[in-house]
Amino acid sequence: MPASLRSNRFILIALLPALIVFVLFAVLPILWSIYYGFFQWKGMGDAKFIGLGNYRDMLQDPVFWRALRNNLILVVSAIVGQIPIALAGALLLTANTWFNRLIRSALFMPMVLSTVVIGMIWGYIYNYQFGLLNQALTLIGLESWTQAWLSNPKLNMYAVSIPINWSNIGPYLIIFIAALQNISSEIHDAAAIDGATGWRKLVSVTLPMIWGTVVVTIVLCIAGSLKAFDHVIVMTGGGPAKSTELLATYMYNSTFAVYRYGYGSAVSTMILLISLLLIGINMAVTRRKSS
Amino acid sequence: MNKNRFGKTALASLAAMALLSACGNGAEENGGASTNDSGAGGGKVKLTLWHNFAGDDARAKTVRAKIDEFAAAHPEIELDAQAIPVDGYRQRLSTVAAADEMPDVFLSYAGSHIKGFQESGLVQPIQELLDAKPEWKDSFLPGAFDGSTFDGATYTAPLAMSATSFLYYNAELFQQHNVAVPKTWDELMAAVDTFNKAGITPIALGNKAPWVAQSTILGSLADRVTGTDWFKKAVAQDGAAFTDAPFVEALGYFKQLVDADAFDKGANTIDNTQAEQVFIQGKAAMMVSGAWTLTNLATTPEDTLKKIEVTVLPAIAGGKGDANTISGGPGAGFALSKKVEGDRKQAAFDLIYAISGPDAQKAIAESNSMVMYKTDVDSSKVTSLYYKAFELVKTVGITPVYDAYLSAEAGEAINNGLQEIMMGAAPDAVAKNLQDAQARSLNP
């Protein structure tokens, strides 16, 4: 008993520096931001307490709902895009050959590029006048398909989601490869003896073995998609006319373009609540599936 | 007290965010805001200076050189000057304003920007300095202090004139396609038609940052239709509203341009600099842009640049405003933090005079940048295009720039509204949004 108590104390002391930094730079700002969400504040001068006024404004603002819808498009595209592609990549590329290593590096490559660089590259690809995409379409005779990809409000959210997904596949690929390598070879042998191969083996053996990892990656996808910001701010800035506004760019623009600090704080609190809600739903759904 | 500390932590993280948004520009240093303790360290006077002349253009280099000169001439002043890239500058300032930690001397834009600091009691006037140097004060052009004078006291002296609506045109393309320089709206529409048929973009526009169309085209266009008095009344919401017929009509002229394909389809997703490139490469016949384009194009080879001519937007028949005008006004100038007193105040005044006094104004004008100051420019030191614009400005009237007068929220409403019109929205809906936003910000 005393020994375990001593080790508990040691754990506490060892964690303390990290904990202090975390509380100071993550927890307190969140609490502070929640607090400011109840004020009307320009960022300077006096703040006026208005209760839930900011939240009422937010729920009545069509731009907020459009931003939320755009974020949900990103969440769905991340879950149906990033995870299956990363999983398929991991399944096909587990063997450690020269060729596989090359492809793995290529898939991981966008991850090491700065998101600003990615945004600019894709901005040029989508450019209406001299963009790669329109020129390629013209070259193969599909001139009628050429588009102002980032301007057309019916398409631009999907156009924006492609580079976001493309650049995020890398880490999931690595996570899945690690998970697949953790399945012990006895299980593969047993599956082989039972005659399970191909699709059957994937669904009945491999997927259940790495299900915990899949759940974690879905949570990461949801959280990542809800705080998406940088690619969009570089490619479109949330425009034209707010058509690619996300919750995070909405928060940023409300705070720094319109100087409504209190409102911006309320929006960031809302992002937190929506993230918790979606992750909670995901936990509930996937837990039932795994049991 | 405790509350204040928490606030600073939160703001530190906001500041980090603002920094992230401005990253990629290495010129800035990640420093705290101001050091307000005076005289520490051997009687040296400490001053902090923030400005946005961080780029590589001639004007930024000129101003930085003036700052360095001042620092070298005043060893008794410990000057901490920070150059912050333009894109993140307002955000950085509002972040330190929220923490009440303004730098001692900082660049602030005329109009609603400096007014915000004044209303919050964060700045003090520089009237004393202006009064002490009457020959300097009197050499500014009429209206130079309009955007930064409140209750009879002036807070900044402008370093620049923000003329925002020159009509630049490629004279070679006009000649090739036999188009006359448009003097009326109908001639402009005819020119748009001719260039479209020839496969040339009629007007280059980079409206990704949505203030561009508003600042360069709409302000000047609307003033021709509504007149300046109406605009000032509408801003004050005093006997005029943005839903009035003349303003909706002005938006309708903008919509005519959109419907006639005067702009490139991707105009809302390229930025102003990219549009300048399209224009200077001869892929577009015209560009409506501000004096900043003169500075940006200054490095273009002279034989390309001499094809470019500059004039004003065409007149609109039946409009209430003058036709021979451009929108513009005083640009940014250096403001003084409320907390600077005594020796430090004198040092700050010396600094402000050194970087916006007569010598500095002349040097800035000769770096191909418009100033609001009577000065002679040696035509051999500037580009031919700049010289044409410099001469043009002497002959035209100046009308207000919309977003310098509108509230931040109303500015955002019209900026987005113009993008909406470019995507097919109706002018009256946009006018209503603008009206609602301006009314709301006056009576919250």
TrEMBL record, chain A:
Residues 68-282 form the ABC transmembrane type-1 domain. GO terms for biological process: transmembrane transport. It is a multi-pass membrane protein. InterPro entries: ABC_transporter_permease, MetI-like, MetI-like_sf. GO terms for cellular component: plasma membrane. It is found in: Cell membrane. Keywords: Cell membrane, Membrane, Transmembrane, Transmembrane helix, Transport. PROSITE patterns: ABC_TM1. The chain crosses the membrane at residues 12-35, 72-94, 106-125, 158-181, 202-226, 261-285. Gene3D superfamilies: MetI-like. It comes from the Bacteria. Belongs to the binding-protein-dependent transport system permease family. This is N-Acetyl-D-glucosamine ABC transport system, permease protein. It comes from Paenibacillus pasadenensis.
From TrEMBL, chain B:
Keywords: Signal. Residues 1-27 form the signal peptide. It comes from the Bacteria. SUPFAM superfamilies: Periplasmic binding protein-like II. The keyword Nucleotide-binding does not apply. InterPro entries: Bact_solute-bd_prot1, SBP. This is ABC transporter, solute-binding protein.
